[in-house]
Amino acid sequence: MSSSQPLKAKPNPSLLGLLRLSVRYGDVEVAKAVHACAVKLGEDVFLCNSIISAYLKLGLVSEAYEVFRGMSCPDLVSYTALISGFSKSYREDEAVELFCRMRRSGIEPNEYGFVAILTACIRVLELELGFQVHALAVKMGYLDCVFVANALVGLYGKCGCLDFALKMFDEMPNRDLASWNAAISSAVKMEMHGKAFELFYEMQRSSGLGVDHITLSTLLSACAGSNALARGQEVHAHALKCGLESNLSVGNALIGFYTKCGCVKDVKALFEKMLVRDTITWTEMITAYMEFGLMDLALKVFEKMPERNSISYNALLAGLCKNGEGLRALEFFVGMVRECVELTDFTLTSIVNACGLLGDSKVSEQIHGFILKSGCGSNYCIETALLDMCTRCGRMSDAEKMFLQWPIDQDVSIVLTSMLCGYARNGRLEDAVYLFHVSQLEETMVLDEVALTSVLGICGSLAFHELGKQIHCLVLKSGFSDDLEVGNAMVSMYAKCWNMKDAVAVFESLSVRDLVSWNGLIAGHLLHRQGDKALAVWSDMKNTGINPDKVTVTLVISAHRHTNSNLVNDCRSLFYSLETDYDIKPTSEHLASFVEVLGYWGQLEEAEEMVNKLPFEPEISVWRALLDSSRIRLNTTIGKRAAKRILAMEPKDPSSYVLISNLYSASGRWHCSEMVREDMREKGFKKHPGRSWIVHENKIHSFYARDKSHSQSKDIYSALEILIVECQKAGYVPDTSFVLHEVEEHQKRNFLFYHSVKLAATYGVLTTKPGKPVRIVKNIALCGDCHTFLKYVSIVTRRDIFLRDTSGFHCFSSGQCSCKDYW
């Protein structure tokens, strides 16, 4: 320490009293007045330190630093106070610099100095410096100080070094409640939720310490993270017993817990009981309602918030994206920009995701330009989201440019995953599989839980069963079999690959199941048109106490279409009791599914009456369901009324015209069907191109109508001509009503014979061993003629034909289809 002594002045109790008052009442002007007096009186280290402390408590860090700089010989208290102030004010670099300067001046830290510098290390996760501070604390004998030891446990826990944190904790000679909280928090951060409760129980047994709001909030986070409903309810009971349920932090944690593990009634009851609420409380409620799919309630909470910030806006944007409301998210984002609300990286990432949901190329280009103009495009998370957005909006050339220009020093694994999904999403199936194989050969993709989930999703979308099984082996080998999202992805993958046996086996092997798990299994049975099994899963799910969401209900309603007996009364009861029994307001998805069920079981008039009596205008999906049911039931009267509504709502959607045309064709009204198709041609509408594919020898073989790009196209076309002749001998009569072109009848037949499904089926017959089933995937609904053709193929080739289209699975065997000609 310098030998020069500071100028001394008599301590001034009145000035110290004024400083205390300024802090108590938050009066900055009084503190600055005292500062001015101190300057005139000459340097008094004690008074200067008091002014520094007051400024820091008032949030005036820069002013505190100015006082410090004016001191000729700052002491340990001066340095420690300012290091702590910098650490807590997100000026960690300055805190570290000041700590080093203090030591260079010959002043060594005390326990408060160690805590201050470790706080800075914790905030920036500076583990290397933390190790050095730890060594210094050992050298100076401060590890026996519980505050220093607690700070080290907190540092190692925050940096993911749980072993170091627990070792530090175990070696502590003295522990207080903060010590236990730090250890428990470290375990929760590392997702070792069982370990967190072991520590809690040990604390209860050995230390005799009570709990505080931090303990309970941390344990509730552990319960939410592990979907431990019963254990979380125990923590809630403990909070009631200790009188801490009314604590704001505990209340917020309880809302978060019941959002993840409970039902909306639990959350609402907690919120209404809370006497004190902060921005976090309101934001948690927005998140909760969004999680339960109650967007209108979430928006009402947002509107009632006494104070909003970027965090509450971000929760709203994320929730809207989660519920598929990209357009509404975009509207709120525009409002944020106009109101000059802070746009964080999370905000921009959410709005990029919203654009991806919209799939609008022009809107995505505008948002892309906005982000680049704002200078945020260099952020890794935002760049990754932008690349994913490009793939979702059909801008694959832009996505490929971003991918090829990706910095070498940045992790490429995530963008590889995005490109894989992008290729699959945009129909470039071979590119997706090729990229995956290349990434494995070059070892550029880290197969973590995110990548594995994504690749399993691609395997499911492509029905690439063999590759899916290989990924399953990688999951087991890499130790991710206990990861819930990976497990859920495997259930979905096997279900989409015609393998419900393994889908059920994976589901039953899951140590923990969430709503996605149950939904995935129900959806799998629906794909296979196994309604009774889907309803049995629904019954088991209710017995576990897991509450359904709107997706579950949509699936369960649809399941009533595929049961072996008429359960329309059960379905009717479920639909009309959604709000009372499950607190779920019926949506257009539920309505559309219910209409399909009523149509299937011959209750078409009831379906139309229900739709017409709705107090609001249903979305187009409901009218489409009514129109499609009319087509199957050959009811052109109801179909025409539904068609008028559809064309009024979406006059430029070609799929609407195709549905209407098919309605007339199915009922034999060829003239009306042709008039609809003529209208399509005049307006320049084209039907979405159908594509079918087969996986053979670990390669994807894709076909479009009249496609001759395949290397074996000559053999395929020759074999198809023979197959058509054999099917016609067996009774197949081509249905030319499905042909959109205005050509002669023989030309229509020629066009019809070379649909993508027929080409794929022929290739499958040629390449699959005799007696083995042929498996085909189609990207749109199967047309009536192809459906009839495949029934005859199953007769003449004496083999089963399995096909997956947008309606589910078809199994053609001995001239019959598992869908019973209703799809």
From TrEMBL:
Which superkingdom does the taxonomy of this entry point to?
Answer: Eukaryota
| Alphabetical UniProt keywords | Repeat
Keyword Repeat part of the UniProt annotation: yes
Q: Which GO terms describe its molecular function?
A: RNA binding; zinc ion binding
Swiss-Prot/TrEMBL PPR repeat ranges:
44-74, 75-109, 145-179, 278-312, 514-548
Stored InterPro entries: DYW_dom, E_motif, PPR_At4g14850-like_plant, PPR_rpt, TPR-like_helical_dom_sf
DYW domain ranges (all copies): 731-823
The answer on whether this UniProt entry bears the keyword RNA-binding reads no
Q: Give the record's GO biological process terms.
A: RNA modification
Q: Which PANTHER family match?
A: PENTATRICOPEPTIDE REPEAT-CONTAINING PROTEIN (PTHR47926), REPEAT (PPR) SUPERFAMILY PROTEIN, PUTATIVE-RELATED (PTHR47926:SF512)
Give the family per the record. Belongs to the PPR family. PCMP-H subfamily.
For this entry, the protein name equals DYW domain-containing protein
What is the scientific name of the source organism? Answer: Ficus carica
- Tell me the classification of the organism that encodes this protein: Eukaryota, Viridiplantae, Streptophyta, Embryophyta, Tracheophyta
